[in-house]
Each structure stands twice: as structure tokens, then as C-alpha cells.
Amino acid sequence: PTIHILNGPNLNLLGKRQPEVYGHETLADVEAACTALAGELGLTTAFHQSNHEGGIVELIHAAREAAQGIVINPAAYTHTSVAILDALHTFEGPVIEVHISNVHRRESFRHHSYVSLRADGVIAGFGTDGYLMALRRMARLLG
Ligand code: DQA
């Protein structure tokens, strides 16, 4: 099975951006760890990031053709985007929502997620390990 791992705005700055909240690993480090684990799990992964809401919508449309599952960290659009929720509703396979930080311990505007209305599971507060946890779950669901 092929899993598309999609990342929203500002995650291109992972490692430099508020490291006290998001840690020192870069998005390239996360991608490398995901690729390595996916190999062990018998999954193929494609890793993408966009700072634009419509860009994420189009990445979800592309996953409709090419992926059996989506792991998504929609970043700030989690809390605002009906368009991303609607796009995910057009995808038929499992969707797992990942947040590096524990959004529930942060500002109240981070407590609501539109994406959670579609997600089969949500991982928050485990740092970048959350991506690897999501891939393990995908292997269970699709293996
Ligand atoms: C985030 C949490 C969001 O609230 C925030 O806007 C992000 C990253 C996380 O991974 O913890 O950009 O999705």
C-alpha cells in the first residue's frame, strides 16, 4: 500500500520554528524516518508540504488516484479549513491526523479540528514520533 504524508503551513521551517514547541528535527529528518519505517512495514510513502490551503486540497485530490491512506498534519489549517475537510471527504481510504505538539494543552483556538470530523484517528503531543505511530497504524489497517 501507498501512503501519502501531507504537511501544512510553516512545517517547512520545522527545526527552526519554535523548537521549544516542535523540537529540533527538520521536516527532511521526519521524511527520512518515515521512509525508513515504511520500508520495514512494507509501505510506500510520498511526503509533501504546502503553505497554501489550495495546495493541500490539490495534494488530497492527487492522493485519491495514487494512495490507499493519508497521514496529514494540516498545521494551522486544522483549525480553520472546511475546504481541507471537504477534500478529505472525497478520499475513500483511512486518514490519520497528526500534530507534533499537544494541541489540547495550548491555546483554545487549537482545541477544535475540522479535520478530526473525517480522521479515523488523531495523534497529538508525541513529537515527530506521531508520524511513525500513524504509519504503524496504517500498516495494521491496510496490511
Ligand atoms: C500543529 C499544531 C497546530 O495548531 C499549529 O498551527 C501547527 C502545527 C502541530 O503539529 O503540533 O502549525 O499541527
UniProtKB/TrEMBL annotation:
Pfam families: DHquinase_II
Keyword Hydrolase found: no
Pathway: Metabolic intermediate biosynthesis; chorismate biosynthesis; chorismate from D-erythrose 4-phosphate and phosphoenolpyruvate: step 3/7
Active-site residues annotated for this sequence: Y22, H99
One GO term of the biological process aspect: quinate catabolic process
EC number(s) on file: 4.2.1.10
Record-level Gene Ontology MF annotations: 3-dehydroquinate dehydratase activity
Top-rank taxon: Bacteria
Site (Transition state stabilizer): R17
Binding residues for substrate: N73, H79, D86, I100, S101, R110
InterPro entries in the cross-refs: DHquinase_II, DHquinase_II_CS, DHquinase_II_sf
Catalytically driven reaction(s): 3-dehydroquinate = 3-dehydroshikimate + H2O
Transmembrane regions listed in the UniProt entry: none
Keywords: Amino-acid biosynthesis, Aromatic amino acid biosynthesis, Lyase
Function comment: Catalyzes a trans-dehydration via an enolate intermediate.
Subunit structure: Homododecamer.
Family named by the database record: Belongs to the type-II 3-dehydroquinase family.
Protein name: 3-dehydroquinate dehydratase
Record organism: Oceanicola granulosus (strain ATCC BAA-861 / DSM 15982 / KCTC 12143 / HTCC2516)
